[in-house]
Amino acid sequence: xxxxxxxxxxxxxxxxxxxxxxxxxxxxxxxxxxxxxxxxxxxxxxxxxxxxxxxxxxxxxxxxxxxxxxxxxx
Length: 74
Fold this sequence. Notes:
Residues 1-20 form the signal peptide. This is Cysteine rich repeat protein. The chain has helices spanning 2-14, 26-40, 47-56, 63-71. The chain is mostly helical. The protein starts with a helix and ends with a helix.
């Protein structure tokens, strides 16, 4: 169970919009893990779909995740 949660977290974090060359920081990953699993769980492991889902649900995201999405072009 813990491994699948960690895998989901890593996959969800990797799916954040990639406006910058580098991947998401640990802080950015932590900011969006709950929102990614709550609103976009069906897109875990599918970065383009996860990015779109997080952008589409931006108004529902936590403040911290919304800031991450916006900072990465969403």
